Structure formats: structure tokens, C-alpha cells
Amino acid sequence: MLWTMITSVQNTALKRWKKLKTRKGRKEHQTFLIEGEHLIQEAIRSGAKFVALMVEEEQRDKWEMFFSTHQVEAPYYVLSSSMFQSLVETETPQGVMAEVEMRKWEESDLLEKDHSTFLLLDEVQDPGNLGTLLRTAQGMGITGVYLGHGTVDLYNPKVVRATMGAIFHVPIFPRNLEFAIQSMKQKGITIVGTSPHAGQCHFEYPFPNRTAILLGNEGRGVNPDVLAEADVEVQIPMPGNTESFNVSVTGAILMYERVRQSYR
Q1: Are 119 and 148 in contact (CB under 8 A)?
Q2: Are the CB atoms for 178 and 225 separated by under 8 Å?
């Protein structure tokens, strides 16, 4: 395993990594940065394509030992503390990070599955909410997640951390939701929306074998034009008389009900 020491702030690789802290830079290079042992382990487990691995000089010995048993086919770099700190987003970094390629998932085979559950997200803007929804989607075995226009950047560092690695395992598709819904309907997939005025509760509704759950913006909910495409709407009862649940909570409740029904 060969380690390259970066000593100049003019280094080409270092400049690229700094660009990856912006959405424009990530889109240009089709890669993103991940930090910490857990995300790197999840990336390895998923078979993600590594572009580079970077460690802080002061913790080099620790990570050399780690990568001797978790081998990755990518260049290995050692950065001074100041250089490393210029790249990280976390307050207490672990001394290791990586550049990873964005994965392109194959959509058509998933839409043909006999039993499937999709998540359609319309303008979910909070990074923590999107990350939590993706983490829950992985746990619930969701078939795929569609990110509509206005949804926060999937590769925003806060989103990536909040997924706890789910970003490497759940098929994710940025799409125009109205077009995606039409394609799903042609495949016989039922679109389930939510409304406080719906005539049935989520646990009364028998989810079909092929279902897509539609969730919306934290403040406005689902765009009315998109919600109008739903085949059915359900409500989550709130006996405490609160106005609404957080979108990640709503998503978790509906995904769990879908899973619960599949065990009956």
C-alpha cells in the first residue's frame, strides 16, 4: 500500500477535494466526499467505487492498520492537519475521509418487480430529514427512492452523514415526480398520498403489492399538482391534536405500516 504525502496547497487533488464541498463541484466531477470509519465501511460493503482515500498525518498509523485489513483499490494520501481540517465538515473528525463516485442505479428492473415499495419525495429540503428518510428506507427494505425537484442535494455532507451509509445501499433517482408517477402508473404501481382530510387511516388501507408512498415539503406538504396524481390518500391519526408530523416521522410511520402488512 503506497501512501502519497501532500505538502502543497496548490496540489491538484487537494483543489479538487475542496471543490467537492460545493454542489457545483460534485456535479462536475460526479464524486463526493465521505468522512469517518462507518461511512467508509459502508461504502466498502456496498462495492462503491473509491477515487481516493485521505488520512490526517497525525493519525496515519491507525488508518494504515485499518486499511491493511480493509483494502480499497484507490490512491492513498496523507494530509497535514491543517489541510485535512480544510476539507472536513464534522466538528470532531476521525482523521479519515474518501472521495467516492456517485452511483448510477438501474431503474427499469425495479419498476417491474411483483412486490415493491417506492418513496417519492417532493421538495424535502432539510438535510437531516432526507438523510433520516433514506436510513429508514434501507431498514424497511424500500425498493427505491425518487427525489423530486426542489429536494435538497443528495450529496450535501449533512445528508450523507444522516443516511448512516444508506446512500450506498438504497437505489435513489432524481426525477421529475409527475413524469415518474405516470411511468409508475403505467407499470401498475399505486401512488399513495397523505392528507389530514383523507377518509381512511393509514392502518385501515390495504397497501397493494406494488406501492409508491408520496411525501412532501416540511412546510407546504406535497405540491397540489403532484398530489393530484395520487391514486389514494390516507391520514395518520393524531389524537394529540398536533398540526402535523415531521416528514421523516410521517415517512417512517407509513413505511412501517407497509412492512407490518406484508407480515400478516
Answers
A1: no
A2: yes
Could you read off the pLDDT of 21-77 as tens digits, one per residue?
Answer: 999 999 999 999 999 999 999 999 999 999 999 999 999 999 999 999 998 999 999
User: Residue 241 above 80 pLDDT?
Assistant: no
What is the pLDDT of the chain when averaged over all its residues? Answer: 94
Position 16: which residue type?
R
112: left (phi over 0), alpha (psi -120 to 50) or beta: alpha
* Alpha carbons 158 and 51: distance in angstroms, whole number: 21
Q: Where in the chain is the domain with CATH 3.40.1280.10?
A: 108-262
Range(s) within the chain of domains with CATH label 3.30.1330.30: 3-101
Q: What is the CATH number of domain 108-262?
A: 3.40.1280.10
Q: Name which of 250, 227, 263 is nearest 115 in CA terms.
A: 263
Residue 188's φ and ψ, nearest 5 degrees, are 85, 20
Please state the pTM of the whole predicted model: 0.93
pLDDT at 263 over 90: no
Which has the closest alpha carbon to 96: 166, 15, 33?
A: 33
What residue spans of the chain are helical by DSSP H? 12-19, 23-29, 37-46, 60-69, 81-85, 108-111, 127-139, 157-163, 177-186, 224-227, 247-262
In this model, does residue 10 exceed pLDDT 80? Answer: yes
Owner of C-alpha cell 438523510: 131
CATH superfamily of 3-101: Ribosomal protein L30/S12 (3.30.1330.30)
